Amino acid sequence: MKTFVDKVLAQADYQPARLLEILRAVQAEFRHIPQPVIELIAAGLQIPRTQIIAVAEFYSFLHLEPQGRYELYIADSITDRMLGNQQVLEALAARLQVAVGGVRGDGLVSLNRTACTGMCDQGPAGLVNGYPLPRLTPAKIDALADLIEQQVPLNAWPAEMFRVEEPIYRPDLLLNQAFVNGAAIQASFARGLTETLAELDVSHLRGRGGAGFKTALKWRSCSQQAATPRYVICNADEGEPGTFKDRMLLDLYADQVFEGMTVCAAIIGSSHGLVYLRAEYLFLRDKLLAVLRARREQGLLGQAILGRDGFDFDIEIRMGAGAYICGEASAQIESLEGKPGIPRTKPPNSVVCGYQRKPTVVDNVETFFAATHIAIQGGQWFAAVGTEQSTGTKLLSISGDCLRPGIYEYPFGTSVRTILQDCGAEEVMGVQVGGPSGTFISNRELDRVVAFEDLSTAGSFIVFNRSRNLFAIAQNFTDFFAHESCGFCTPCRVGTSLLKNQLAKIADGLGAAEDLAELSALCEVVKNNSHCGLGESAANPILTTLLSYPELYLQQLQYREFAPAFDLDATLAAARRLAQREDPAAHLNQVEN
Q1: Residue 592 has pLDDT above 50, yes or no
Q2: Cα–Cα–Cα angle for 303, 305, 309, rounded to 5 degrees
Q3: Which PROSITE patterns has this protein been placed in (predicted)?
């Protein structure tokens, strides 16, 4: 044990910031984090053992108790439920004789649920020892169980078992662009770095991770900080259920993502880049490392890039360990520093005080991908597409009730109706735009458009037909937030659980009018008082379904007669204010007319 730990610590250069990386290696070796190992790591890194325990307890893929040698997780996102994940769990539990949430007596296999695995277009999906198991058909489940019972090593399993497809149904401005490695770096230096930043400004590129912060402003602010070193972080922790477009970009377009990071590094004066890769994308790690090696060989990473003295920049891959909150920039930085991923208090923002308390740019995979092509083509080329406030195109991960789930690229300003036609969606009840933290819209709102000024999204687009239960959707999303809350602040830690329970009461038909009023008031408390974006978004599944289908909530109340003066439309006033909606569709009397 000590020999293994010493080797892992040496590979991590004895840096406490690499604690998560160290614990992942230990988990893979021992199937949990043993207490003696905690003592060895604490001594080797010279950190308190309590810090190690806090990290191990924070991340869902790390365990202090032994798991199976074959560690199975089945995705429990709403799309996986729609595709029969419960039947998959039951079949695996029966075939492998293991309880859901438990470890088999002989220690061979464990079986658990997990949140979205980033394969919503290919569900029901799961993971085995971190590697993907898409499209879990009955035949595949039988084959999987046989391989486990025969104790066949994962590297000897059929490749088809792990094959993740990347269906791109509608490429547009970015996905259609030809690209030669190094073109964006060369164009940036030929034009001048200051001028390239100006082109990024002209493009009006906004962050594609959901927040929509102006990219040029972020890069410029970071470059103007006096402190050094400066860092570039690519946020590849694509944890929003229903989102998988970054998976596709890293799988098929990694060079262009890394090139965007390199252009950013040249502009802000950075020599060190980090990719925070979500744990569920472990299968991409070796491929990305191979791309990085090739770029070093081509002179596109490392010392004196493209022969330019003084321009030294390299990129390393760091893995997450299963925590949705680490998609938030400051929580991700905490995780990269070997801590639990609890969001920081702001200000200062990461451009001032980021990784290792130094100026840091944190941008999404798609943002760096777009920046690469803007560096080559110029800002006006990009700004000519989309809308005035939302330039360029947006990659959408489309899943749910449609004939063609997969990746679509659209100019901003495209209507939901057009998108539904393209993906083959019929009899639509509603669409969840932007994942659980986004907006649910009804079939009365299909002429709304994907844009920062209307339906903002990090890329998730889930379709629900009329056979689906609105409350099952809202409950799945609300349960997700309650589970993923980091627990730091009371409004989120307690509030998400209260939301979950109150919504369940109404969904079960046991609610009275005052319960609905209380639910609306609770949404306001959670949204307005939480520490970070998770808590601020946790009420959205309730708020947006309530505004889209208020009549369904009203019908679900068993005891409306207890409050004869109850006015649902007045109760919805708080929800409308929080969701910034006053359109006719958000008023019950308009719906009923």
Answers
A1: no
A2: 75
A3: COMPLEX1_51K_2
Asked if residue 240 and residue 151 are part of one domain, the reply reads no
Note the pLDDT of residue 195: 98
Mind listing the pLDDT tens digit for each residue in 128-183?
999 999 999 999 999 999 999 999 999 999 999 999 999 999 999 999 999 999 99
Is residue 584 pLDDT above 90, yes or no?
no
At 593, is the pLDDT very low, low, confident or very high (cuts 50, 70, 90)? very low
Q: What is each CA distance from 445 to 35, 421, 456, 504, in whole angstroms?
A: 55, 15, 15, 26
Look at the chain and count its residues. Answer: 593
Shared-domain flag, residues 244 and 366: yes
Q: Is residue 478 part of a domain?
A: yes
**Is residue 267 within 8 Å of residue 197, measured between CB atoms?**
yes
Same domain, 322 and 372: yes
CA distance 513 to 506: 10
Q: For residue 72, what pLDDT band results from cuts at 50, 70 and 90?
A: very high
Range of the domain at 414: 393-468
Give the number of other Cβ atoms within 10 Å of residue 485's Cβ.
23
Q: Tell me the CATH number at 119.
A: 3.40.30.10
Q: Is the CB of residue 38 less than 8 Å from the CB of residue 52?
A: yes
- Considering the domain architecture, whether residues 458 and 476 belong to the same structural domain is answered as no
Q: What angle do CA 78, 92, 34 make, to 5 degrees?
A: 90
What values do phi and psi take at 450, rounded to 5?
Answer: -80, 110
First vs last C-alpha separation in the chain: 71
The encoded tokens of residue 91 equal 């079949």
The β-bridge relationship of strands 439-442 and 393-400 is unpaired
Res 591 pLDDT > 60 = no
CATH code (residue 533): 1.20.1440.230
Assign residue 301 the CATH number of its domain.
Answer: 3.40.50.11540
Q: The sheet that has 460-465: what strands, in order across it?
A: 168-170, 406-411, 393-400, 460-465, 428-433, 439-442
For residues 244-266, give the mean pLDDT: 98
Give the E-state strand segments of 300-377 in sequence order: 314-319, 360-364
Contacts of 201 (CB under 8 A, 6+ apart): 216, 217, 220, 379
Triad 395, 274, 457: Cα angle to 5°: 25
What whole-number distance in Å separates Cα of residue 256 and Cα of residue 399?
A: 25
For residue 124, cis peptide bond before it (omega within 30 degrees of 0): yes
CA dihedral 537, 540, 543, 549 (to 10 degrees): 170
Query: Angle at CA 489, nearest 5°, toward 484 and 493?
Result: 45
Phi-psi region of 125 (alpha: psi -120 to 50; beta: other; left: phi over 0): beta
Same structural domain, 132 and 208 = no
Element (H, E) at 90: helix 85-96
Same domain, 376 and 232: yes
